[in-house]
């Protein structure tokens, strides 16, 4: 019987425990300061208490593993940011607090994804797609707040805000430079300057460009 056949014969609960043990072992190794590129399947398997063949019964390779970890991060952040982006909740500060908490909770995964995205095209695509969901939803929220806002302007606004927020929070967690409260205050002000709170006046100021020569 092959490894895959044995896995399919296992109870669902046991399969879930084995998969989670592999993910948890990877998180632990990363939390110890190891670079994802340095981790071997052997180390991860030993940490999880499984054999190498068992590892490959659950994950095709290390890329598949880090993408699975990334999907957990993605689901968590979408869950906490979604209500504000969909206009179901206007408490932006609580949303930013929750996003930072998710980033911190998944800090080892976040670092591994950012690292692997620099050399693995599939992980880089995942990371861009991770941001794309927020870009689309932030642009839609911006246009609901200001129906006169052109689609291209809303998209550029969302692109700037989403990538700025992710980079600030990621850098804050990896090498803190400023205090957390002022950082979140600054990020909130930047978002509110573009997408005001419900009932607040719109700021339709536009950059005045010099005439072309």
UniProtKB/TrEMBL annotation:
Keywords linked to the UniProt accession: DNA-binding
GO terms, molecular function: DNA-binding transcription factor activity; transcription cis-regulatory region binding
SUPFAM superfamilies xrefs: Homeodomain-like, Tetracyclin repressor-like, C-terminal domain
InterPro entries: EthR_C, Homeodomain-like_sf, HTH-type_TetR-like_transc_reg, HTH_TetR, Tet_transcr_reg_TetR-rel_C_sf
Residue ranges flagged as DNA-binding region: 40-59
Pfam families to which the protein is assigned, alphabetical: EthR_C, TetR_N
Domain HTH tetR-type: 16-77
Identification of the protein by name: HTH-type transcriptional regulator EthR
């Amino acid at each position: 019987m092959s490894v895959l056949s044995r896995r399919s014969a296992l109870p669902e609960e046991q399969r879930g425990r084995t998969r989670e043990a592999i993910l948890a072992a990877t998180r632990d190794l990363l939390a110890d300061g190891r670079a994802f590129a340095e981790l071997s399947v052997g180390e991860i398997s030993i940490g999880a208490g499984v054999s190498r063949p068992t590892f490959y019964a659950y994950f095709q390779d290390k890329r598949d593993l880090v993408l699975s970890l990334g999907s957990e991060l993605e689901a968590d952040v979408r869950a906490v940011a979604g209500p504000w982006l969909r206009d179901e909740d206007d408490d932006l500060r609580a949303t930013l607090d929750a996003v930072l908490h998710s980033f911190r909770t998944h800090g080892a995964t976040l670092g591994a994804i950012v690292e692997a995205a620099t050399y693995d095209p599939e992980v880089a695509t995942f990371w861009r797609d991770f941001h794309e969901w927020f870009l689309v939803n932030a642009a839609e929220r911006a246009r609901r707040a200001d129906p006169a806002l052109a689609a291209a302007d809303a998209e550029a606004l969302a692109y700037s805000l989403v990538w700025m927020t992710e980079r600030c929070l990621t850098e804050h967690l990896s090498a803190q430079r400023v205090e957390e409260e002022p950082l979140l205050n600054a990020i909130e002000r930047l978002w509110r300057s573009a997408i005001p709170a419900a009932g607040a006046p719109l700021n339709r100021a536009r950059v005045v460009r010099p005439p072309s020569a």
